[in-house]
Amino acid sequence: MDYNFSEIEPRWQNYWREHGVYHVVNNSDKPHYYVLDMFPYPSGAGLHVGHPLGYIASDIYARYKRLQGFNVLHPMGYDAYGLPAEQYAIQTGQHPAITTEKNIARYREQLDKIGFSFDWDREVRTCDPKYYKWTQWTFLQLFKHYYDNTADKAMPIASLVARFAECGTADLDAACSEPMDFSADEWNSWDEAKQQQVLMNYRLAYLADTYVNWCAGLGTVLANDEVVNGLSVRGGYPVERKLMRQWSLRISAYAQRLVDGLEKVDWTDSLKEIQRNWIGRSEGAAVWFPLDVKSNENVLPGAQAYMPQFDPQPVPSFEIFTTRPDTIFGVTFMVLCPEHELIDQITTDEQRQQVQDYVTWAKNRSERERQAEVKKVSGVFTGAYAVNPLTEERIPIWVSDYVLAGYGTGAIMAVPAHDSRDFAFARHFGLPIRQVVSQEKDVTSDPATWEESMDAKTGWSVNSGFVSGMKVKEAMKAVIDKIEEMGIGHRTVNYRLRDAIFSRQRYWGEPFPIYYKNSTPYTIPEECLPLELPEVKEFKPTATGEPPLGHADKWAWDEANCCVVDKGRIDNKTVFPIELSTMPGFAGSSGYYLRYMDPTNNSAYFSPDAVGYWQNVDLYVGGAEHGTGHLIYARFWNKFLFDLGMSVKEEPFQKLINQGMIQGRSNFVYRSKNDNNLFVSKGLVKNMDDVTPIHVDINIVSNDVLDVEKFRQWRPEFADAKFELEDGKYICGWEIEKMSKSMFNVQNPDDLVARYGADTLRLYEMFLGPVEQAKPWDTNGIEGVFRFLKKFWRLYEGASSQPADKGALKILHQTIKKITDDIERFSFNTSVSTFMIATNQLTDLKCGSREVLEPLVVLMAPFAPHIAEELWHQMGHESSVCDAQWPKYDEKMLVEDTVKYPVQFNGKMRFTIDLPADSTQADALAAIRSSADGQKWLGDNEPKKVIFVPKKIINIVL
RNA sequence: GCUCUGGUGGUGGAAUGGUAGACACGAGGGACUUAAAAUCCCUUGCCCGCAAGGGCGUGUGGGUUCAAGUCCCACCCGGAGUACCA
Description:
This protein is α+β, with helices and mostly antiparallel strands. It has 6 domains: 170 residues, HUPs (Rossmann fold), CATH 3.40.50.620; 213 residues, Isoleucyl-tRNA Synthetase, domain 2; 66 residues, no CATH class; 85 residues, no CATH class; 142 residues, Isoleucyl-tRNA Synthetase, Domain 1 (Orthogonal Bundle); 62 residues, Roll (Ubiquitin-like (UB roll)), CATH 3.10.20.590. The strands form 12 sheets. Strands 27, 28, 29, 32, 33 and 34 form a 6-stranded mixed β-sheet that branches. The protein has a 4-stranded parallel β-sheet with strand order 2-1-25-26, with helices on one face. Strands 6-5-9-19 form a 4-stranded antiparallel β-sheet. A hairpin with a 2-residue loop joins strand 35 and strand 36. The protein is globular and about 100 Å long.
């Protein structure tokens, strides 16, 4: 009987479903193991061959762990909220829930055909109220907590309130938006609204006026990771900076723990590096520079208020951040960002007009413009001066947009000799440049002759007062010690990581469980969750510019009856308006891995028992493109839940594997420029200028040979196409590009499953190359894998209970060893090769022994579960191969009697020689001498040196 | 610019300091067949040679080593991330 995958595969898929083979329980004597895939957004296009790559790899590992005796959690679900379904709704009026439902059904159908071992009883969908109840719940907890830097964890707001009532902000070290300083009396004298306003400064989920990434094209605000080069990642619309009142998550409070945690996880260095760069920790010093009040009559007394918490100076000062305190003797000007609040107060009358014009211009520039013109230097002098606290020099204060408002204090001390940006600025405006670091001790040169600044953090200080002659590192320490002693600054750390903007002016997302009394936000009680997404008439923003939820009629909170009521009943006494924004995509995906542990729990996010059993994700597989988004947010979310005592591990994903992107391989036909109907085969094109390459659907091309009949039918304009053929064939050109519809290079897994079966698809995706490497999709090789499976199948047609001979057993044990090693290091492409080698060898030996074939089928089961299950049952087993036992190799079976030694002379391989495995160096040399090959190369010469590596190699140096 | 990756036959790739090119695809030749499909066998890095055999070969140039695709230094090229973060 031939290998009939189309009969076998659906039959076993039904069997698995009916027998609940992949159902996982939360209690077991077995050790636990959690294998997770990044769940997909169900797009309208369905899966292409790139999606299952990671799923297949994780499925192999999950099945392998199960065969090793682990209780394996391997769930799947859908990241179901998102922009495309909503954009589609705006265009067509079809409710996003319907679109999403349809797309999920299609995904499920495609996934089922590939034979994954997912426990579908645990499926989650982020748009399901039973699920987002807990997304909303977590948001409420974030709202009700603040970050205490002393305890280094999140603490209840209630304890902060108690503290304020007792001692105000005294000794408080908490993450906040603005430093605050008040007494218990002040706190107690404030009314409810004022107190709420103050608390907002500390909450981990807070409402604030912040500069946001406003994307008019999508009608919403975006997080930093959703914007690339000034354009939205989704849709590519321009993004501008805008000051808006938005919900944010105080993820910056966790910056240090997010950096530290990277030490504890088993991720690739490159991904850790991406996160480290994104968090952007830099050590340095905060230094207060006093204003030169005497020489600047325009400085208002109000400037003093700029330093509310820290007031060491008799004169007004402003704070800067620097990573190079050692260069403080080289400061020749100061720069403020255009948003800096000091600008108005210090600018002189002569400069006022110019400064105002510049600030207006800078603020109105789009992010894209600003980024595109980074090389262009711009700025203006304020007319005011600061004083260098160490040299007492008078230093001009400038305004420029190369200093960013969102980092540090939005003000810098400029050291043009040792900072390339300051250097460019100084050169452009003719400001002085002073060398304070030299690469060779006491050797200086005239900065006027320099072509660039010396940014390196190495060398010695020069022209630097008391630190002159010190190494850069010592000078840094000495300067910080000095400014701390003077009380004008301190050692500090800055992070590039900004708080995550959490509001979206969209419909298809989780509603915020928040209502407003006099524009002060209040939380909807936890027991009233979920706050369900209301129906709306339209998915567009309202005429007044409100988010789509503004169209909802029933969208007001009845405080007394704790229910959502009609908007018409809003009286701001007992019925209040509900928040109109929804949460962003990363809200639902930040904690889903925990929910899989206990997906139907209605009284808690997940039970302590469930998380106590599963702990965290042991293996997470997904794309590296989530490095600055999902993988940061999820780590933050998990750490917060850890602080709450809910999650039990600080890091959610212990080991992480990035699957490489599958690129498309496009095919081209070449249309003659002289004859619009003539297509020239690739080999016959003499000059590429004479032809126009046209993308052609890869589904009508096989091994780069075009099916000309299908091409004529493909599109009406090609119906009468003529061809110039080579050897009777039309050969297409090819190129590696992104996989996309417009390039006609999308490969749909269903077509391949229909043609070759799921097992072939699974093996072939693995056979393409290392999982983590990007590689082009090319169906050319799939035939080879299909042939292999047919050959593997034939091996079992002669299965018998005869004992196996030694050779066959050796092949088996070698295979067990290699496959086990390969799976452990996620080298699945070499596993497939190993199966091919074993099958070829056993076929040559005509081995039909069950003693060999049974363990072999277990080895195959994680890779090709359908054929393995079929053969397993054919050999008389009643239970699923999924519950078989992973074979162990016997070292004794691998022992070789003789070893084929490569013999090198001066490091060049000349011949091989068979020697007994226990040969010594002397034995080997004697054998070489007496062999014909040995005579030829060695003759009667005495080797200068002989390297003999037992069982590996012999190298003779002459 | 900075950071991280990668560079091996016509193609995908293998080789954890020890025989470079495993395993496949493609190509060429052959067997079986009325034919096709399927299956099987041989050849296939480049150069010289009828052959035996030899030389050259892992982006480039150096180095370490008995031995380098693998380790070190410098450079070139591709991909990804990031982008005035002081």
